[in-house]
Design goal:
Blueprint lengths: L6 H10 L5 E2 L1 H5 L10 E2 L3 H13 L1 H18 L2 H22 L1
Parallel strand pairs: 1-2
Length: about 100
């Protein structure tokens, strides 16, 4: 993934499915996953291709990045936490609008 717009969710989806992910530094900036542990990074086409080859050639690396990426998503991103925050915002906004009227 070479650009940063809209890629955070795609990376999170892949990582949550234990798919080892490779991205550019820009795409990983939104996540802050640990490079070499939770995600692989390449700055140009050659580096990205080399990361793909590394995953294909090294089953242990493949498994490590897949498992660590999955754990990263579970530890840092939660639907429950996100919806709780949204509900709090909606409830606060709703309460404020009742007070104002």
């Amino acid at each position: 993934m070479r650009i940063g717009i809209g890629l955070q969710n795609k990376l999170l989806e892949a990582m949550s499915m234990r798919i080892p992910s490779i991205a550019t530094p820009l795409a990983n900036d939104a996540l802050s996953a640990q490079v070499g542990k939770q995600i692989l990074v390449g700055e140009n086409s050659e580096q990205l291709a080399n990361q793909v080859i590394a995953l294909l050639d090294d089953q242990k690396l493949y498994q490590r990045i897949a498992e660590n990426g999955h754990a990263f998503v579970k530890q840092n991103y939660s639907w429950k936490e996100a919806t709780d925050k949204l509900n709090k915002i909606i409830h606060t906004k709703h309460s404020c609008s009742r007070i104002a009227s």
